[in-house]
Design brief:
The chain is mainly β. The chain has one domain: Beta Barrel (Maltoporin, Chain A). It has 3 helices and 45 strands.
Length: 716
């Protein structure tokens, strides 16, 4: 979703890691499954039944002919993955941080979101989400990260990849529950609870979960003598599972979230030494409330199952920000009550049984998004703008038919799929600052997104694959610019080869891939300071070539010690003809694309006696230097390389019933930026430092400092 009020651009700070791959029992059908226990580490002594649903059917990870990383419940806990920022540090080829307006900056392999531009799809189970992308990671069974274009099965806005939250669902088998509490520095508290109960024998079950988070953050507002961006977030989710017969399964999910935060952007002197203080002339207020419901129906005919997924989401945000990020009483902006984004989706899907010769999936999909942006600006002293500041609304409809099939012959599997669809984007522009406009803009496009893959299994525990796929991010109209600027759809073509499997008596799990991406009509959003007002524009910059390699290794050195290591290489360069602000940028680096990223980590689990285990974990991730924007300021616009390290110690019961832990995030207190806007107020000197007349000439958002967290959890 887009907001014209927030300072935001390119996805930031890549940190790469090797994930501990989730192991979950295979689902026998397309029906919603009851939550099962998971073993998250790649265990060399275990079987190869590491199951994901990345292809909308349950498959072993080693058999899926695409690059997938998955984090199960234990890995999420061990690695401290409580937010998208932490997840972004644990995945090869992924750049991901949360922006100050609670939307993600995310890119995979240099492809994806820059500000309002969305190129990586977020899904809760099988439903795309625009309003809950950065939900707290609570009541999650597994997170799956699918790399490369996923348009065939997941549709538009997934040309860079897809991130799927696979949530826990009600169990018909037993009454159970779980509780956890975390507390840490900077007034950080998080409490979570869930309760599951069968209601009518093996026919009906209920699961209710909820959480509350409080965090004062690491940025301080010296003018108002309080934290600059405190977070208060509460979420509740209720699920009803009905199974009136062996063939029919129904799952109804209702969810509510209330998030309250503020603004942590701060003026900066340079890109090398982040300042964790702000100086606002008033206390802002950002509130995001969202309401959603999903009805998932599955009927198993035997050889084929039919699934219907219907969703509706409404978000009610209220946003009031200091647009010049200073104590000067210049301007502030706020949204009106008319700003209530709505999202509705419907999917129908037929899935055949898996067999030794041929299996397939076919479906229809529809989506409607209504996103009104009505915002006002209060002028004081400097900027004589009248209300409203921006007043426009956008509507987008998508319809598609899709299908995929697997033909198995000997040790080979040929996979083919296609998605054929059409989107329509409509923008009605009422006002732009003082100008009454009343313009209508419509953009339509029919698209075909194919995918072909050939995989070979030398044995049951390894596979080699090669794939070709295409993706698309829909075009639209930038109603915040004057004159209004339409931008075209961004498309890409991906060529990939990879190998994954076990070695050394199943003690080593490896996942290696090479990719070559041709990006056309790259969409880029930039933020500009116009008279103290943040104005964002979205446009097509040009084409790029993104190529690279990823290596992930998980080695079980002993029965107690597992070691992770991984690295990613990325070369993302603009092709001939790419221009930004009328300047030829061909051959230059695509923003937010560090060439090298790496991770190392280790987990040690040692039984102390028959009922108690000691669990130790440590990891460190590295990001190479990268450019923040296409202007290519060689000093001030280049983010330095940095490391982030974390460590955790826990005592846990051998049966998994309880755990007490302590954790240190950002162990060495590294200071770094998650967003940076060079030369926002004035041009820096040649050495990257601001001139004396404007000592704070840049604007940035800073990463979290060192934090100590203690936690207790129990299951019953």
């Amino acid at each position: 979703m887009r907001s014209a009020l927030f300072l935001s651009t390119a996805a930031c700070s890549v940190m790469i890691s090797v994930s501990a791959y989730a192991q979950t029992p295979a689902a026998p059908s397309d029906a919603p499954q009851s939550t099962a226990a998971s073993n998250d580490a790649v265990d060399a002594s275990a079987t190869a039944d590491i199951v994901v649903t990345a292809t909308k059917r349950s498959e072993r990870l080693v058999d899926v002919p695409l690059a997938v990383a998955a984090f199960g419940e234990n890995a999420i806990s061990q690695q401290g993955i409580t937010s998208l920022n932490a997840l972004g540090r644990q995945t090869p080829g992924l750049t991901m941080v949360v922006r100050q307006n609670n939307t993600p900056n995310v890119a995979m392999r240099g492809v994806g979101a820059y500000g309002a531009v969305s190129g990586v799809g977020f899904f809760i189970d099988d439903v795309i989400t625009f309003t809950d992308q950065v939900a707290r990671i609570e009541d999650v069974e597994r997170i799956e990260i699918l790399k490369g274009p996923q348009g065939t099965l997941f549709g538009g806005s997934a040309l860079g990849g897809a991130i799927r939250y696979v949530m826990k669902t009600p169990s018909l088998d037993e009454t159970s529950g779980e509780l956890s509490a975390r507390a840490g520095t900077k007034n950080y508290v998080n409490v979570y609870g869930a309760f599951n109960a069968p209601l009518i024998g093996d026919k009906v079950a209920l699961r209710v979960s909820g959480y509350h988070t409080r965090d004062d953050g690491f940025v301080y507002d010296v003018a108002n003598d309080q934290p600059s961006s405190p977070i208060r977030e509460t979420g509740v989710r209720g699920q009803f599972l009905l199974k009136p017969s062996d063939a029919l399964t129904a799952l109804l999910t209702l969810k509510f979230k209330d998030l309250r935060t503020n603004n942590a952007y701060a003026p900066q002197s340079d890109v090398f030494s982040p300042r964790y203080v702000t100086n606002f002339n008033f206390v802002g207020k950002n509130t995001f409330k969202s309401y959603s419901g999903v009805l998932d129906l599955t009927y198993d005919f035997g050889s084929v199952s039919l699934k219907s997924i219907t969703s509706a989401t409404v978000q009610v945000p209220y946003i009031r920000v200091d647009l010049d990020f200073s104590p000067n009483p210049t301007i502030n902006a706020y949204t009106t009550d008319a700003y209530k984004p709505h999202v509705y989706t419907q999917e129908l899907r037929l899935t055949s049984e898996q067999n030794d010769r041929f299996d397939w999936i076919a479906g229809l999909y529809g989506q409607y998004v209504k996103d009104p942006i009505v915002s006002s600006i209060v002028p004081v002293y400097i900027v004589p703008f009248a209300n409203p500041f921006f007043d426009y609304n956008t509507k987008r409809t998508d319809f598609a038919a899709f299908g995929t099939g697997n033909y198995h012959f000997g040790q080979f599997t040929l996979t083919g799929g296609v998605r054929v669809g059409r989107y329509k984007s409509e923008t009605h522009q009422n006002f732009l600052r003082t100008v009454a406009i009343g313009n209508e803009y419509t953009q339509k496009k029919t698209f075909v997104l194919p995918r072909v893959a050939l995989s070979f299994k030398p044995d049951n525990d390894s596979s080699i694959y090669a794939s070709f796929s295409q993706g698309l991010n829909p075009g639209g109209t930038d109603a915040t610019s004057n004159p209004t600027r339409p931008y075209r759809a961004e498309t890409n073509t991906d060529f990939e080869i990879g190998a994954k499997g076990y070695a050394f008596d199943r003690r080593l799990f490896y996942d290696v891939n090479l990719f070559y991406l041709i990006e056309k009509n790259r969409q880029l959003q930039t933020s500009t300071n116009v008279g103290g007002v943040t104005v964002k524009t979205t446009s097509n910059i040009g084409d790029s070539i993104n190529k690279g390699a990823e290596v992930n290794l998980n080695f079980r050195a002993t029965d107690a010690l597992t070691v992770n290591a991984g690295a990613s290489y990325l070369s993302a360069k603009w092709r001939k003809g790419a221009r930004f602000n009328s300047v030829d940028i061909s051959g230059r680096e695509v923003p937010n694309s560090p060439k090298w990223t790496a991770v190392m980590g280790a987990t040690y689990v040692q039984p102390l006696n028959s009922s108690l285990n000691l669990n130790l974990h440590a990891d460190a991730s590295y990001s190479d230097k990268f450019q923040w924007d296409p202007n290519y300021r060689p000093v001030v616009g280049t983010n330095p390389s940095y490391w982030i390290a974390s460590a955790r110690i826990a005592l846990e019961s051998a049966d998994g019933r309880w755990e007490i832990s302590g954790r240190v995030d950002n162990l060495f207190d590294e200071k770094y930026f998650t967003e940076f806007f060079p030369a926002y107020y004035a041009a820096p000197n040649a050495n990257g430092v601001c001139p004396a007349a404007t000592p704070l000439c840049n604007v940035g958002a800073m990463g979290e400092r060192r934090r100590f967290v203690v936690a207790v959890s129990t299951k019953f």
